[in-house]
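User: Here's a chain of 450 residues. Predict its fold as tokens.
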Amino acid sequence: MRIHLHAFWLSLAAATTFASPTISADLSITCRCVEGGVNSELAAWVKKSVIPGFTKMKGDGVKVTLTEFAGSDEQLTQQLALDFSTGAGPDVAGFDGFLIPSFVEGGLLKPLDELAGDAVTKWDGWSHITEGSKALMSYQGKAYGLSLGTDVRVIFVRADLLKEAGIDPASWQPKSWADLLDTARKLKAKKPDSFPLQINAGVPMGEATTMQGYWMALLGTGEEVTDDKGRYIVSSQGILDTLNLYKTVYVDEKLGDQRAQLLGDGRNRTFANFRDGKTALLLESDWFYRSVTASDSEFAVENRDEVMTWAKMPAKEPGKGIRGQDFVTISGGTGFVLNPNSDEKELAWELLAFMNSKEQLAEFQKYEPRIRIRDDVEIAEAPFLAETSQALLPLTTARPNDAKYNAVSAEVQRMTEAVVSGELSPEQAMSRYREAVIRIVGEENTVSLL
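Assistant: Prediction complete.
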């Protein structure tokens, strides 16, 4: 009897020691994505590829859910700031890289390796990510997330509308702001009730105003938001030239939809204007092609590849752009971060790493081809992305990696809104901007060029 009992306890101990443990955990992902709506392709990829693939790899005990957030980028940012500050929120969150410094300084994010340890530093994916791409989701040399890729900004063109105005879209490439405005005037003359030119402005559009609108004009004056010493430029001829461009488009000549810049749903209105043929020239990131105008989008452009093309944004005058360039653009990066309050930090990292594996990003290319963060993931059968990245990545720049940038950007948006609404002159708006930025960063961190 003793022998049998001894054998029983040995077999039980062996089973306990060597049996594979069953993982039981719930993970959540949130991103600004809605299948059939905004960033539809991202939502579809997460739901149909990432989640099934990860749960198959980890076993039935792991459950992953996606929360599809339909609000604006700014609303998601506010929600994540509230969640992260109160110990709530998703395990993995969609995030724009430019927000990382302010979240870090606010104690709302932690480096990936601090959250998940050696699994992060030993991840084989790092060898396929350049330092520049890694920097899109980093701050002070520490990685806080992984970007899904990068982008460039162009003038999207309704070729059919240019043809109607007697302009050859195949050869159309403005070489100055004067050329751009001249085309907008011809389009307006052809269709007086149209708004031919869209340059994002105002507070409701948030960072889309700063990056897609203000930056794209300011770079054409040879300036950036900061100087080469990292000081914020608070008064300059470049700022005035940029604000006067906004004034010409929205106040003086009504070449753009002034009302859309001031409304809460203004950005969607500008998308609808382009879709419906009311706007022919629209400054946006290549996301506009990848997602907004795609066939399954609310703002899909019918026969897109026949009626839609692109052009480079010119400097104010040839050779007057940043670094003496004739044309300008700017790049950013969005991706995902880990919630430092997650109860499953290491598993959340595994999910993030899985999302950014070669296999999963290659699968994402089937949903939404774009310039991916990994150098071993190709852009297949996407002539538009291949053409724009080849032409514009050598010309691009990026936003300051600074914790105060987000607050300064908000003042840029207020400055453009004051001009577009007619509330202030460019000089008055710049003066108010100067005072606001000095309050934010300190006068010693600013410079006036006038």
